[in-house]
Amino acid sequence: MKRPAPIPDLSAPSRRKRALSEEERVLWESVAKQVKPLRKRPAAAKAQAVSSDPAAHHASAKPIPVRPVTPVKAASAPRPQAPPLAPIGRRERAKLSRGRQEIDARLDLHGMTQLRAHRVLHAFLQRAHSDGLTFVLVITGKGKVGGLESERGVLRRQVPEWLSLPEFRSLVVGFEEAHIGHGGEGALYVRVRRAR
Description:
Blueprint: H1 22-34, H2 43-52, H3 54-59, H4 90-98, E1 105-108, H5 114-131, E2 135-139, H6 154-163, H7 166-169, E3 172-177, E4 187-192
Parallel strand pairs: 1-2
Antiparallel strand pairs: 2-4, 3-4
């Protein structure tokens, strides 16, 4: 009869903490700045949690005074929301694609990083809005052919998302993919909101 094999010790070895590299620390700080807590515990709940701990209760004879939580006053004037986006009408789109409606300005974002493209696009639309322009063409490009699908056409995907943000909706009425003669899926017709 064979003896059973001894059972190996599976307890986890103690792990030493590794220090973060400078690059990892910078990355962590940038992520931590963007994180918002789900909800904050009110001060009264924290005080009750401390006072309900028996060890803390025996350590000090005096009870910790609990301040009543005062309700937060609502803001007097609600913040105006950005107007919703509206599609460009069929007539305007047909006029634009046939050249009967003039495109007032063009912006080419080819070769820009996302950060730079976002800044340039916002400045361009602010200028178009203040100058009273109606239709502008924003060229994003179709993206590099080849490579990974997820890496292709970053600006082509991002620009419509940016235009849907509140900061852009105050400048833009709507947008649609341009006609093939103006760049097709690599460009957008953008209708600029009139200045009041």
